[in-house]
Design brief:
- The complex is a heterodimer of chains A (330) and B (168).
- Chain A contains 15 helices and no strands.
- Chain A has 330 residues and is mainly α.
- In chain A, helix 2 (21-39) runs antiparallel to helix 13 (273-279), helix 4 packs across helix 5 and helix 6 runs antiparallel to helix 8.
- Chain A is globular.
- Chain B is built from 4 helices and 4 strands.
- A 4-stranded antiparallel sheet of chain B has the order 2-1-3-4.
- In chain B, helix 3 (92-112) packs across helix 4.
- The chains are: A mainly alpha (330), B alpha+beta (168).
- Chains A and B meet through helix 6, helix 8 and helix 9 of A and helix 1, strand 1, helix 2 and helix 3 of B.
């Protein structure tokens, strides 16, 4: 086989390996549902009230001549966007709602970054919305399919690439953050008082959110602990990308990544909740559901039946990679 | 999956990955792509400066605004960074006063609309605070240095509002 063919085959295997439609549909419902609830109270219409002196368009908006639209239009746009997120979560008119969610989300989530500073807490949400707009994430477990009537859905590469794309982009976020620190500061970033001072500074109301606990100050009192946590953080960010290559390490790395964002929020303040919402995309919800059902089945049979044949429970003893055809379907 | 659709998806994936890798490799930012430079510098100083809005209550007392609700849609980070950039402009003094007036007008409008529970203000001041970092952040309410950058009174913004109404 030619080298080029090998690369093509590897590329296709990575992105388009056949997978269950259930996984992507569950990820779509969880992600859009959480995003809908998270952004529902947020009011974008206040941005046009900022004085023109605050308007400092970032490069993307400047290059594309994207304007700041009036508050009345923003009011309509944010309603349309939030409704589209809700519709996408339940899978109603999914194709159209996902496209609207992606276009509206790119504008609305990008807008605040034109006022003073470009922050980075919601870039992954924009990517997730764009990916959903191109995906077939509502082929099962959606109002659309319920209205069309049930039909068998075979495993397909269509249901793999959106999940893998989120993995790759999440890994690149971590990798970018890690390499930025190494590029600008080297290992001194960890082996100095830098992190200790950052932790202390976080308690002076300098971020978009205040730390949720005072543990950061306790850590800052111990120089060795600050350095150990800084080194660990640097390691997590730089090597998160290993998750792309090791299926076995992936769930552990993902869990560490989620704890990492929880830690930043708790000890330093920045509101990285949108990253946690994006983390919902990476969880294999179909397996979680399968295990929950198996557990419920075991509890029910143990409670109701005095004699249970072992075969009744055997196939629920562990979650398979793919749910067997005999299992309850959506 | 048809060949055409696969082509479109491959193009999308290539754009997403290439955009991210390009920004990381070149240390640039083209939102939503980024190199994620947050906290990447080294912090050595044990003192730091930050801009803070301080309200003047009707009884003349000062009230440091720390809660983001009162400066919405800005937050403590974005507002400070915006002020720093405005301060670098040629006509900084006037533009900083405009910025503070804008914050005061929004604060009062939102307060009157019941969108926050802050007290009525007589004026709004922009300070540059400087702190010596303390291990327990015990001096957060008592900065070591306070430098007044701009001040705007409610009467001033009321005058501007009235002038605008006449202009309409």
């Amino acid at each position: 086989m030619k080298t080029r063919d090998k690369y093509v085959e590897t590329w296709n295997r990575f992105w388009f390996e056949p997978a269950s439609a259930l996984r992507l549909a569950s990820a779509r419902a969880m992600f859009c549902g959480a995003a809908f609830l998270f952004y529902l109270p947020y009011d974008f219409t206040e941005w046009p009230s900022a004085a023109p002196t605050f308007w400092m368009p970032m490069r993307t908006f400047e290059l594309l001549h994207v304007p700041l639209i009036p508050a009345e239009w923003l009011f309509v746009l944010q309603i349309v966007w939030k409704v589209s997120l809700g519709l996408c979560a339940i899978g109603l008119w999914t194709r159209a709602s996902a496209i609207v969610a992606a276009a509206g989300g790119t504008y609305l989530l990008g807008l605040p970054h034109n006022f003073g500073a470009t922050q980075h807490y919601d870039t992954l949400v924009v990517f997730a919305l764009v990916i959903l707009a191109f995906s077939r994430a509502a082929d099962v477990r959606s109002v659309d399919t319920a209205l069309r009537g049930r039909r068998a859905i075979a495993d397909d590469g269509e249901y793999t690439w959106p999940i893998r794309a989120m993995w790759v982009l999440t890994a690149l976020v971590f990798f970018g953050a890690g390499t930025s620190k190494l590029r600008h500061s080297g290992l001194e970033w960890a082996f100095s008082d830098n992190f200790r001072l950052l932790l202390m500074r976080a308690y002076y109301h300098v971020s978009d959110g205040d730390p949720l606990t005072r543990i950061g100050l306790e850590i800052a009192k111990r120089s060795w602990l600050s350095q150990a946590i800084a080194l660990t953080s640097l390691g997590i960010e730089t090597f998160y990308i290993v998750a792309l290559f090791s299926r076995r390490a992936r769930p552990y790395i993902a869990a560490i990544g989620i704890l990492f964002f929880v830690g930043i929020r708790a000890f330093m303040g920045p509101t990285f909740e949108p990253y946690l919402i994006c983390g919902l995309f990476l969880v294999p919800w179909h397996r979680v559901e399968y295990r929950a059902r198996a557990w419920a089945h075991r509890v029910a049979t143990a409670t109701n039946a005095s004699v249970i044949h072992p075969d009744d429970c055997r196939h629920y003893s562990s979650a398979p990679d793919r749910i067997p055809r005999s299992a309850p379907t959506p | 999956m048809s060949a055409a659709r696969r082509g479109v998806i491959n193009l999308l994936l290539a754009c997403l990955v290439a955009g991210s890798v390009y920004d990381i490799a070149t240390d640039q930012e083209h939102w939503p792509f980024s190199q994620y430079p947050m906290f990447s510098g080294i912090w050595r100083a044990t003192t730091f400066k930050w801009h803070r809005l301080v309200g003047v209550l009707t009884n003349g007392r000062e009230w440091t605004i720390e809660d983001t609700r009162y400066i919405f849609p800005f937050d403590n980070s974005r507002l400070h960074l915006a002020i720093v950039r405005i301060a670098l402009r040629p006509d900084a003094e006037r533009k900083l006063a405009d910025a503070v007036a804008n914050c005061l007008e929004r604060y009062e409008r939102r307060r009157r609309a019941g969108q926050h529970d802050g007290p009525p203000l007589r004026a709004l001041r922009l300070y540059e605070f400087e702190w010596d970092l303390q291990p327990d952040a015990g001096n957060v309410d008592k900065p070591d240095v306070r430098k007044l950058v701009a001040e705007v009174r409610v009467r001033q913004i009321a005058g501007v509002e009235a002038a605008n109404r006449v202009g309409q």
